[in-house]
Amino acid sequence: MPEDGERSFLNRKKSQNVHYMSIPINRGSEGETYDEHHPQDGSHRRNLFDQPLGSFKGVNSLGRFASSLRRANSFMNIDVGPDKERTFFKDGQDALFDPYTLAPSVDGRRLSHAVAGRGGLSVRPSMSELYDDSALFDDQDSITVPGVSFPNDAATSRRPTLGFQDFDGSIDPDAHSVVLKKVETKDGKVVTLLAGQSTGPQTVFNSVNILIGIGIFALPLGLRYAGLIFGVPMLAIFAYTAFHTAELISRCQDEDPTMISYGDLGYATFGSRGRAFISFLFTIDLLASGVALMIIFGDSLNMLFPKYSVTFFKLIAFFAVMPQTLAPLNVLSTFSLLGILSTLGTVFCIAFCGLYKSSSPGSLLETMSPPLWPQNMTNFGLAVGILSACWGGHAVFPNLKSDMRHPAKYRNCLVTTFAITASADISTAVLGVLMFGVSVKDEVTKSLQLTPGYPRFIYVLISVLMTLIPIAKTALTTRPINAVLDVAMGITVQPESDDSLLRSKRIISSFNGLLINAVIIGISILFPDFDKFIAFVGAGLCFTICGLLPCIFYMSICSETITTWEKITCTVIIIFSAVLSVLGVGAAILA
């Protein structure tokens, strides 16, 4: 329990517009019996992920990591209501959440109904309960929570009891409470939200998972186009700029904690047109990601079975990813771990191959002569797009911060995230260009598969890993686009009383998934060059989402606190983002 001095420290902090409260969980009466076939509302069957394993225990158990990843994946959505001031609110003040993930949800349940629906009341817990591991703390032993104060008014002394069945096992079975937070906006309106659940390590894991994608395999070619003299500093500058703009987004959220999504920032800056424009950008971004995954799928299998064309394998991909399109989010989220492991496994294979082979090409023991300068402006423009494509995580960063148990730790999480990502990206780019020099292909894995001298299993392993990435991630990537089509066709998520109507809506939803996959396959066949496609996406979207817009958001939302130096910095980033975006897109089109 915190001492008086520590408690006063909480109240001296600058941010006084967020108040936390702990709501006891109603797990059912003691007289209830357990039936393994029909568990009662308060029951929860433990699984493997709930068991402690080394340092993965408590709030950092494997089960909590899996839940955090599922929430992070649920944040990928496209706003279909541009006139909505806040993405995850009903009527502007009632928060919406998904009872299965305890994450904000566009079509979720009203939090006010969940709190008031049971009708029971319980005495507000003591300070020690508020500071219990199950309520507020993560991996830190400290009892200091920056920016948090607790109201003492009588209105907050008694709170309704939440029914545990509302949360469907998404809460740790040992937890005795759910933490809510009351947020006061700049205009004085008070709203209640579910407090974030992810710890610092979980937020870093989710952020790295977003940033390290298949674009990493094109970085050696980007470095070849730019040359080592320009390329390595360019990667470092892009990394620092992306970190800085992510921090600007975080500061915008500090001004108004009800802004949970990137679309909320767009609405606060530009109104409904801003939200609509951002939804358009997200749609193009997700569609492009799906296309890139299909290009990787076709190229990887074509390297293993060259007698079949790339187009043939892309058509095979249509049937390979279709079953996942019909799977629910929890299955897709778990399955996406296979994509993460495959990406990391491929990076390790690249390093292993470089150390295994003693002679060039394809060796780190006898390296090739890397280009030092760009050969022409077209190559430099392509390099700009390719090297910027791996920093496109800002669209989800606002949600990840809102999901943190301690949002004040978010900056430290960003530092760790970008340190890991920059190290992985720069290392992969340098390794690839040292191993293959000017002969490196648009995918460095393609260069490995075309180079003799490695163990035979490596060629098969790389093809398998690169094939698993699209299978694991495509359905999750296209899920938000499918949801938009479902809404456009009037398909609601609520179960219908008429079974035939429900069946027809499921058929239409499945058709939407088929349609999106067909469009992605078609685009990947029309534009088969991975490097040019990545350059186009990186220059056209990443500079806008990760550079230009965050600075505009900050200059608008934080106009009362922004300093002159910050205005100058933001203006410089906006100008350079616009110029480099035009340069990269133009080079991709000309090439």
From TrEMBL:
- Disordered, as annotated region: 25-48
- Keyword set for this entry? Amino-acid transport, Membrane, Transmembrane, Transmembrane helix, Transport, Vacuole
The main place the protein resides is membrane
Give start and end of each Amino acid transporter transmembrane domain: 198-589
| Listed Pfam families | Aa_trans
Q: Where is the composition biased (Basic and acidic residues)?
A: 34-48
Q: Give the transmembrane ranges.
A: 225-243, 276-298, 304-322, 334-357, 377-400, 412-437, 457-476, 507-527, 533-556, 568-590
Q: Which InterPro entries match?
A: AA_transpt_TM (IPR013057)
Any GO BP annotation: L-histidine transmembrane import into vacuole
Coiled-coil annotation: which residues?
Answer: none
Q: Which domain of life is it from?
A: Eukaryota
Return the GO cellular component terms, semicolon-separated.
Answer: fungal-type vacuole membrane
Q: Name one GO molecular function term.
A: L-tyrosine transmembrane transporter activity
List where in the cell it is found. Vacuole membrane
KW Ribonucleoprotein (keyword) present? no
Membrane topology term reads: Multi-pass membrane protein
Q: Which family does it belong to?
A: Belongs to the amino acid/polyamine transporter 2 family.
Could you tell me what this protein is called?
Answer: LALA0S06e02388g1_1
